[in-house]
TrEMBL record:
The lineage of its organism: Bacteria, Pseudomonadati, Pseudomonadota, Gammaproteobacteria, Alteromonadales. It comes from Idiomarina xiamenensis 10-D-4. One of its GO terms (biological process) is tetrahydrobiopterin biosynthetic process. This is Putative pterin-4-alpha-carbinolamine dehydratase. GO terms for molecular function: 4-alpha-hydroxytetrahydrobiopterin dehydratase activity. Transmembrane segments: none annotated.
Length: 111
């Protein structure tokens, strides 16, 4: 299988399936620094990135914003002094799609 990081996102549509439990386990092995979290019943992928200052955190935030626009798949980004929290899920299906794992891998590569 090609590396997740090199894959392109599919269009986010409401009729695409969420990842199965088996897919979830194997995809998580490819992005070991990400944690699955469930908020309001919606499973999401989350990772905190640490930086030396606010400027570096903001620059990373903007890199992720550019990748999100390229792929038309958008995260929640919380930018603080020295820290960016990135959360991916697929709004159209209220859960995780392979796109979210692709975007998590691309996020790691942008560090
Ligand atoms: C039309 C547009 O592509 C869609 O609204 C996209 C935009 N970005 C998105 N991002 C995420 N994370 N989930 C979506 O379902 C989604 N939908």
């Amino acid at each position: 299988m090609a590396e997740l990081q090199a894959m392109k996102c599919e269009a986010c549509r409401g009729d695409v399936p969420k990842v199965s439990d088996d897919e979830l386990a194997s995809l998580l092995r490819e992005i070991p620094d990400w944690t699955p979290v469930t908020r309001d019943g919606v499973m999401q992928l989350e990772r905190e990135f640490k930086f030396k200052n606010f400027k570096q955190a903001l620059a990373f935030t903007n890199r992720i914003g550019d990748i999100a626009e390229d792929e038309m798949h958008h995260p929640t980004l919380v930018t603080e002094w020295g820290k960016v929290t990135v959360t991916w899920w697929t709004h159209a299906i209220n859960g995780l799609h392979k796109n979210d794992f692709i975007m998590a891998a691309k996020t790691d590569a942008a560090l």
